[in-house]
């Protein structure tokens, strides 16, 4: 088995179409078919179900694709890290984060890294919680910063920040911070919230705020991007409840009303794979 067999299979597994996969690989369709046949013969296992109209993965194919993706991502990281070491760097740390982490946590971490480990290169990728978990599982990220209450077995975690919530209203809204008394003043408003795709636990935490105030919110829009939520609020299409840390660096006509008197809190956690052998990760973890 050679590396090209894995790359060809991954391309086909994603496209589930020999013609499209061959085009992406810049090879002919018969050549791709031959490579996949060689791979199945070596494994003595069928990886694909083929009909005249469709191609799909067998259970063995689904497993092999997941593991092959991990292997290829890991190989790419090893190659890149080797080159960086050859150039005098200590390596690379691949960091994923939700938007609110960029307000304080990520800049502070990068600043400490530049002082303590100046030859570690950091690459940043803003992703939602679910995508970060998948990227860490497939060795596309070394560490992620997520808003979750807990993570699955196999991940290490550390709470790096606990935050209160804030209500966000348009600068033109009749109720401004000085007029705020309680959340029930907004009982008839439309709310713009982070989608439960962002995190079901986070979404449930927000909904518990409304339950404590004995009303069910009218949710007009959902998004996984904070900037989208703020722009909708600015256009007076609703109000929002978000982590208070997000108010830093906002250049929009919106106002934040602190809800820190409420018991609900949201956690920002660092998560990583405990079996990750990246030396740069071990060094960065010391800075948390």
Task: Describe the protein's architecture and organization.
This protein has 288 residues and is of the alpha/beta class. It has three domains: 3-71, Arc Repressor Mutant, subunit A, CATH 1.10.10; 89-161 and 268-285, 3-Layer(aba) Sandwich (D-Maltodextrin-Binding Protein, domain 2); 165-264, Periplasmic binding protein-like II (D-Maltodextrin-Binding Protein, domain 2, 3-Layer(aba) Sandwich), CATH 3.40.190.10. The protein has helices spanning 3-15, 18-25, 29-43, 59-86, 105-116, 129-137, 200-212, 226-234, 279-285, and strands at 48-50, 55-57, 91-97, 120-126, 143-146, 155-163, 165-170, 190-194, 218-223, 239-243, 254-258, 266-273. A five-stranded mixed sheet has the order 4-3-5-12-6, sandwiched between helices. α5 (105-116) links the parallel β3 and β4 (120-126). The protein starts with a helix and ends with a helix.
Based on the model shown, name its key terms.
3 domains; alpha/beta; D-Maltodextrin-Binding Protein, domain 2; Arc Repressor Mutant, subunit A; 5-stranded mixed sheet; single chain; 288 residues; globular; 9 helices
